[in-house]
Predict the structure.
Amino acid sequence: MNPSISTDVLIVGGGVIGLTIAHRLQQTNRSVMLIDPAEPGSGASWGNAGTIADYAIIPVASPAVLRNLPALLFNRNSPLSIRKAAILSLAPWLLRFLRQALPAATQRNMQVLANILADAGQRWQELAEHIQGQALLKANGCLYVYDDQRSFELGWQDISHRQSFGIDAEMLTPQQLASLEPQLPPVEGGAAFFPNALYINDPGQFLTLMFKQLTDQGLHFQQASVIGLSRHKSGIEATLSGGNRVSAGQVVIAAGAYSRGLARMAGDRIPLQTERGYHLEFDLDQPLLGRPVSASSRGFYMTPMQGRLRVAGTVELGGLNPKASRHRLDKLQQGINYYFPHLKQANRSWLGFRPSIPDSRPVISASKYGNDIVYAFGHGHIGMTLAPITAELVYALLTSTTPPIDLNDYSAGRF
Ligand SMILES: Cc1cc2nc3c(=O)[nH]c(=O)nc-3n(C[C@H](O)[C@H](O)[C@H](O)COP(=O)(O)OP(=O)(O)OC[C@H]3O[C@@H](n4cnc5c(N)ncnc54)[C@H](O)[C@@H]3O)c2cc1C
């Protein structure tokens, strides 16, 4: 049986990670093919909060999560919750997650995240320039607001900790916050401000632009799922839904939350789960905010997108079931009404699947059997932010050249 198509590099998954890798590889002389059953850019990458969060060095598993665990996991109103039906299937992942919440592991994960996030803003500026998407990339900083004195105190500790890793952040009084965001209601605890942070004011539009440019410049895209991978003397053979086969010299698995089974086909067991996240959108004639504002204790961002406000966030552990939880959406609605009571009826809602690893570090790694299969998934809450550096690291893995940062920290062999 002959493979029907052949390519130098096959990329499995066309989210922000797969597309950015394709963009990087187009700058070489290799032929590149992208496979996705859906429209590229329509997965988790489409509906996120859009922040280029180079300050997001705090892993999800931390001593604070450990202390508040029962309330966080079993209270369905908490910003981090678990679907009861999924507890058994999640147990192995949760155990690993809890180990990562111990102080020494958290400190280590913070350092590893700080290393990979260090020049995210600069890399995004270059990417936006390359695809002529600069108008969608905004540089107004980002805010964490603290509703009361208690959350200010916790926030202050959190920000001091980040500053010790070199993150540029300043605390604002309620008055300083009011002058930056005059339409926000007064909050007792003030805010933290990350002055250098960027955001994309329409991730979906950015990725559509990127995909168009890639195909205009010769990217071969096929709409299908990869359902099988096998190694042969001549390379990797991928079987697609619909029966076609692709023969590739190298394969990059970048299928976000759906990557675990694909990595298994390549010989690796990776503890990948999903943290489900939601958004609501409100169409607006005039923006209410000048920059992304995180309601930090409520677990969501309010991001000004083009012609609308997107309220995105919260974490629900509970698998890839596509049914959205009405309760979670209602909680987001209540959350936004705390700040903007007049936003009664959302114009649209969305559920997306963050690809999550217990230590909050992505897997950017050759497979156990070599760099003929390379992994680029598990970016959790910061996949938009990390896309350009991930593409650079994947390029280094594929070409056996020196990566810009130490890859051991993101290895598939660390589990
Ligand atoms: C509510 C929310 C808010 C967020 N906010 C931010 C933020 O502000 N900043 C930030 O940096 N990150 C944020 N994130 C995280 C970010 O969105 C993700 O980390 C990122 O989108 C992951 O990108 P990806 O390309 O790995 O996955 P995806 O975008 O999900 O893409 C994976 C692709 O793989 C395809 N696929 C699946 N199975 C197969 C298969 N068998 N064969 C071929 N293709 C396959 C899918 O169809 C999909 O298109 C947020 C996430 C959520 C849910």
In short: The chain has two domains: 5-45+205-272+360-414, 56-89+136-199+273-356. The two ends are 37 Å apart (CA to CA). The chain is about 35% helix and 25% strand. The domain at 56-89+136-199+273-356 is CATH 3.30.9.10 (D-Amino Acid Oxidase; Chain A, domain 2).
